[in-house]
């Protein structure tokens, strides 16, 4: 069976391309999805790419990932820094989650340096812009190990 990865994007990431390009670059979320699909084909895995501006929808998507996907890549946007509910969801689903950010959150405002996702994630990738997405896919597959099971 092919491995399946869920790539989940949180609030305001639908505006990538025009949103603060000095911070996030000019790549759109559609460009990033295309990059991930291309990388998935090269790696021989399935990928589902989603975005929501709503905390509850992100939580529902994490719950639904159980039994459907082998792992999750999560760019939770600003919910990273506020959401105990997302942290609890990750802790409850028994799936590996890689935390991802386009920007280096540790080099930004103090409030962005606190992540509720980090303690329940298998690891974090940040600061590499759109290139972080395929990097996160590689990291998650490496964490999952060699088996296709
Ligand atoms: C972000 C970083 C967050 O602090 C911010 O709220 C975002 C995007 C990133 O990808 O760099 O919305 O997650």
Provide the domain count.
1
Q: Say what the CATH topology is.
A: Rossmann fold
Compute the number of strand runs: 5
Query: N-to-C SSE series?
Result: EHHEHEHEEH
Rg to the nearest angstrom?
A: 14 Å
Number of continuous helical runs: 5
Please give the alpha-carbon distance between the first and last residues.
Answer: 7 Å
Helical content band: 25-40%
Gross CATH architecture = 3-Layer(aba) Sandwich
Bound molecules: 1,3,4-trihydroxy-5-OXO-cyclohexanecarboxylic acid
pLDDT below 50 for ≥5 consecutive residues: which ranges?
A: none
Strand order of the largest sheet: 2-1-3-4-5
CATH superfamily: Dehydroquinase, class II
Structural class: alpha/beta
Describe the biggest sheet?
A: 5 strands, parallel
Mean of pLDDT: 96
Q: Hey, roughly how much beta strand do the residues contain? A: 15-25%
Q: What is the top-level CATH class? A: Alpha Beta
How would you characterize the overall build of this protein?
The structure is a single chain. Helices cover 36% and strands 17% of the residues. The chain is built from five helices and five strands, in the order βααβαβαββα. By secondary structure, the protein is an alpha/beta fold. Helix 3 (55-65) runs parallel beside helix 4. The protein has one domain: Rossmann fold. Bound molecules: 1,3,4-trihydroxy-5-OXO-cyclohexanecarboxylic acid. Residues 12, 75, 77-78, 80, 101-103, 105, 112 line the site of 1,3,4-trihydroxy-5-OXO-cyclohexanecarboxylic acid.
